[in-house]
Design brief:
alpha+beta; 4-stranded antiparallel sheet
Length: 423
């Protein structure tokens, strides 16, 4: 894309331009002083970050206002680089290395805005979902403190002078405004907690880099107790026996439950393996990069009818449930498909749960229900950990023999047995 410049100066054959640095795609791009000499360029960050729309307004600003103020903020930075270049040229010592040295060795990031540092920290995360959480938290924070949401096609960007704020300018007042904003927006307790934990991790990173001196105290609300997010077997049986409208969503909840309560992301990636008549296996995506664990799903007589109804034909290497991901290939597309399918299950189950007079459930309840059912049947924690792919805190795992496929199938065959009627 062709980007106009805020300032452009030619100093003895060296072209110095203050412009947007568009070498990488961003929601809001960094404004940098680009020094070009002998067909090579070097960029110096100004610490200002702007969307293209806001940048264009800064370029043409002629009078008072926030865009003119940003222009005035950039002018001395541009002039300083020009002065350094001229001094080095006059001394016949100009090179990019000499220019960097003459500007001084600043600490990494100290010339960057809080917004820019936050974006860079988010984009350093490998998992798309994690990156999105950090970026959503950033957006919420800056909107709470005066940034405007600007629609651009299907995306919404933020703009405003607050985006130029430096990390050391962060105060308790900014955080307090954020608390109030999240409450006004009726963000759930879990969403508030997610945003604030992401913010805290980001601040600790700034402290480690000595960009800020201390991390302000944050009050992170506690989310709903997961111990309450399960269905008793008597209610699971009501879902199993339901025959009304939207039965497909009751069936999908039961599939997740009978598949060891696995996350939908893992179920979406299930393939028919070598032993596809007896078991399905997968490596849990949540722990794949830390301590990978193979999860075994017994194909019990309880699960078989659902596989016959919803699964693809058994063929080694083929996806078991291709209808979840469809043609999604990229990580982001896969995340979107899983998110949408989860939402479909939740929305589809709502009227069913109301009609059956049972708690309103989501796909995540299937995992808690699986664990609870086996626990109430007196199954050991070690066995349950193995079945759901828990790897943290398994002290005895190095000493235990591998659980047999026969034992796994026997235990999972109890999932429709009400433990309160055992006696």
């Amino acid at each position: 894309m062709r980007i106009a410049s805020v300032f452009k100066t030619n100093v003895q054959g060296v072209v110095i331009t203050t412009t947007l640095d568009t070498r990488k795609p961003y929601e809001a791009y960094p404004v940098a002083v680009r020094v070009t000499y002998d067909r090579k360029s070097w960029y110096y960050s100004t610490g200002v970050r702007l969307t293209i729309a806001d940048y264009d307004k800064v370029v043409i600003a002629k009078s008072k206002g926030k865009y003119y103020d940003i222009q005035k903020q950039l002018q001395p930075i541009h002039q300083n680089i020009c002065d350094k270049v001229e001094s080095l040229k006059n001394a016949n010592r100009f090179s990019f290395a000499e220019l960097k040295q003459s500007i001084g060795d600043k600490k990494v990031g100290t010339d960057k805005s809080l917004s820019m540092l936050w974006t860079e920290f988010a984009e350093s995360k490998k998992a798309i979902k994690t990156r999105e959480q950090y970026l959503q938290a950033r957006k919420s924070f800056f909107v709470a403190n005066g940034a405007k949401e600007v629609p651009d096609g299907r995306k919404i960007y933020i703009s405003g002078r607050i985006l130029t704020m430096k990390a050391e300018e962060l105060t308790a007042s900014h955080i307090e405004k954020w608390y109030l904003h999240m409450k006004d927006q009726q963000n759930s307790v879990s969403t508030q907690g997610m945003y604030l934990r992401a913010f805290r991790a980001f601040l600790y990173d700034l402290k480690e880099k000595e960009i800020i001196e201390s991390v302000p105290k944050l009050t992170i609300p506690k989310g709903e107790r997961r111990t309450d997010s399960f269905l008793e077997v008597k209610n699971i049986l009501k879902l199993r026996d339901y025959e009304g409208e939207g039965k497909i969503w009751a069936d999908w909840w039961l599939i997740i439950y009978l598949c060891n309560g696995a996350n939908l992301r893992d179920i979406a990636g299930l393939t028919w393996g070598a032993d596809y008549e007896n078991e399905l296996t997968f490596i849990r995506s949540k722990t794949a990069n830390r301590s990978p664990s193979v999860v075994h799903i017994p194909i019990t007589d309880l699960l078989k009818p659902y596989l016959d109804k919803y699964a693809a034909p058994r063929q080694k290497g083929a996806r078991v449930f291709p209808q979840i991901l469809l043609d999604a290939r990229t990580e982001k597309a896969i995340d979107n498909r899983v998110h949408d399918f989860n939402a479909d299950i939740r929305v589809g189950l709502k009227p069913i749960c109301e009609s059956l007079n049972i708690p309103e459930v989501s796909a995540s309840w299937a995992r808690n229900s699986y664990i609870t059912t086996l626990t109430w049947h007196g199954i050991s924690d070690a066995f349950i950990d193995d079945m759901v792919g828990h790897t943290d805190g398994k002290v005895l795992s190095g000493y235990q023999g591998k659980i047999s496929a026969t034992k796994r199938a026997k235990i999972n065959s109890m999932l429709f047995d009400d433990p309160e009627e055992d006696e």
